[in-house]
Amino acid sequence: RNPNPSEREIKEALAGNICICGTYPRHSTAIMEAAVKMASGGYKYG
């Protein structure tokens, strides 16, 4: 919902989601990279 989330905002948004895979740092990185791509028009919704 935030086009430019900070790492803190991402962690807060994912809080409560429990996963045993241990890839949470990669989730934050992927979300931040997607936000940049979406902002630059490199990704279209839908």
Characterize the structure shown:
The radius of gyration is 12 Å and the shape is elongated. It is built from two helices and no strands. The chain has one domain (7-39). By secondary structure, it is an all-alpha fold.
Describe this protein with a few key phrases.
46 residues; elongated
What's this model, at a glance?
By secondary structure, the chain is mainly α.
Distance between the termini: 15 Å
Shape verdict = elongated
Structural class: mainly alpha
For the sheet with most strands, the description reads: none
Tally the helices.
2
Low-confidence stretches: none
Total count of domains: 1
Indicate the radius of gyration in whole angstroms.
12 Å
Q: State which percent range the strand residues make up.
A: under 5%
The total count of strands amounts to 0
SSE sequence, one letter per element: HH
Helix proportion of residues, in percent? 40-55%
Mean pLDDT: 83
